[in-house]
Design brief:
This protein is an alpha/beta fold. 26% of the residues lie in helices and 12% in strands. It contains six helices and eight strands. The strands form two sheets. A six-stranded mixed beta sheet has the order 2-1-3-4-8-7, sandwiched between helices. Strands 5-6 form a two-stranded parallel ribbon. It is globular, with a radius of gyration of 20 Å. The relative contact order is 0.14.
Length: 278
């Protein structure tokens, strides 16, 4: 064999090995049983979580909402959508015991979810072309580090504008969408019905409240959105085009169900609304 052919073969092997070593985002073990590039694969869902362990610059502990992860994850998995996790810092995200209800405790041993939450990707590792929807997870730390993160913003808007995908959020996770801007320069929430955890439901005399970088309702309305919420802890979801938001923890499953319906080409049904709410 000519020396030149040997050299070319050797260089090709080196290139293949290098390409195989390039890092990419993978779903937690057990999530991805199909080729994500195959035509029959429905695409992936990206869960966006916060990394902060405290409120603002305080020492007050903060956490993701574990149940908001689990309930949505179960819904997406049942519909055949693999799930990936990303956070501003990557790696493990905080889960406080107070954010894990009794019914959710067994799921702390579910490696399909926990491996993902212990090893979230950094924003730089995410290829937004792979996703059909993003889901902003709530919890007390969702107000910090996510809403203003420029790469997370670009990922979400790529999914929405270039992939024709869905942007969804639940509870404090709605904070992640309030600063999103369309290519036109208009705020994503402008002219849309939005819900999330409003400031009137916060404990405004508690120390953590002083750390909040902005107020949910006030900020959505300042961006031209129409913020709606109901009293109590019942599920409440707003579906406006390809933007889906849920008010509270109890709404996580319904938010995920609405996303699945939209991705399937069905019109997601908005909730019955109490005319007394605003």
């Amino acid at each position: 064999m000519p020396v030149s052919r040997i050299i070319r073969s050797f260089l090709a092997l080196l290139l293949s090995a290098w390409l195989g070593a390039v890092p990419s985002v993978h779903a937690a073990p057990g999530n991805d049983k199909t080729d994500p590039t195959a035509p029959e694969n429905p695409g992936r869902i990206l869960f966006i979580l916060a990394s902060s362990k405290v409120h603002g610059r305080s020492t007050i502990p903060a956490s993701i909402s574990f149940g908001e992860v689990v309930n949505a994850w179960d819904t997406f998995q049942a519909a055949g959508y693999p799930v990936d996790f990303v956070s501003p810092d990557g790696g493990e995200v905080p889960i406080l015991d107070t954010y894990v209800g009794k019914e959710m405790e067994p799921r702390l041993k579910d490696d399909r979810i926990m491996n993902g939450l212990r090893n979230t990707a950094t924003p730089a590792q995410v290829d937004p072309a792979r996703y059909r929807a993003v889901y902003y997870v709530g919890g007390s730390n969702a107000m910090y580090g996510v809403p203003e993160h420029p790469v997370l913003q670009k990922i979400a808007m790529h999914v929405y504008e270039r992939n024709g995908g869905v942007i969804s959020a639940v509870c404090h996770g709605t904070a992640g969408i309030v600063h999103l801007t369309l290519a036109s320069g208009q705020a994503l929430v402008a002219g849309r019905r939005i819900t999330g955890y409003p400031e009137e439901h916060e404990k405004q005399d508690a120390p953590y409240f002083k750390q909040l970088p902005f107020l949910m309702r006030k900020t959505v309305e300042a961006r031209g959105g129409f913020f709606h919420a109901v009293d109590g802890q019942q599920p409440y979801v707003e579906v406006d085009g390809r933007v889906v938001t849920g008010q509270n923890y109890a709404s996580a499953t319904q938010v995920a169900q609405a996303v699945v319906e939209l991705l399937a080409g069905r019109t997601a049904q908005p909730p019955r609304r109490d005319p007394k709410t605003a």
